[in-house]
Amino acid sequence: AQSVTQLGSHVSVSEGALVLLRCNYSSSVPPYLFWYVQYPNQGLQLLLKYTTGATLVKGINGFEAEFKKSETSFHLTKPSAHMSDAAEYFCAVSDRNNDMRFGAGTRLTVKP
Amino acid sequence: DVKVTQSSRYLVKRTGEKVFLECVQDMDHENMFWYRQDPGLGLRLIYFSYDVKMKEKGDIPEGYSVSREKKERFSLILESASTNQTSMYLCASRGGWETQYFGPGTRLLVL
Fold first, then answer.
1. In order along chain A (112 residues), what is the average pLDDT of each group of 10 residues?
2. pLDDT in tens, B41-51
3. How many CB atoms lie within 10 A of CB B88?
4. Cα distance between residue A71 and residue A24, in whole Å
5. Helix, strand, or coil (residue A62)
6. Contact criterion met (CB < 8 Å) for A42 and B98
7. Do A32 and B98 touch (CB under 8 A)?
8. Of A44, A88, B68, B83, which has the highest C-beta tally within 10 A?
9. d(Cα A101, Cα A33) in Å, to the nearest integer?
């Protein structure tokens, strides 16, 4: 069975600083990996995903993530944080069947 | 654009009431899911369905049931609501094995 660990339930950065949200996964088969974002009182929306091919994946709003098989990681980054990036972020792993597992989430705060 | 809608954004119910949460998707997806979201616990899968009239238990099915009579609609039922079912409920749909699309969520308060 697969699982996801997000390191850090809360991350705080200053506006303009680098955003780094960490995600490590466990999977017995080649995984599909996802990052979702949730703004207050809304559902989750897809930021980016890795299925096959290029290991550096670019998503919406300037975010990107790199699949590193050797480290079983899929960390999310953004070079320069914006106030509008404040939200909760979820990493997820899928084993290509009907099983998608989510991490516990990381709440990102952006300070002016 | 894929659209997943949920019947209510906010609900207040009393202990012991029967509660229905409705979810509708417009993309002809086979798979539909119900999660609950609680602080510090992330999303936990309650039930999912991969076809009409089919259902599978997720990680926390106790106290819940589901119904899928039509492909586009997946209902979550709380047979007798309890205070520990106060939570945010999220519905999702997925075609094949890739991206899940989420509804806006229903915040349920059981008094």
1. 89 97 89 92 90 90 94 96 96 79 94 95
2. 889 999 999 99
3. 17
4. 8
5. helix
6. no
7. yes
8. A44
9. 10
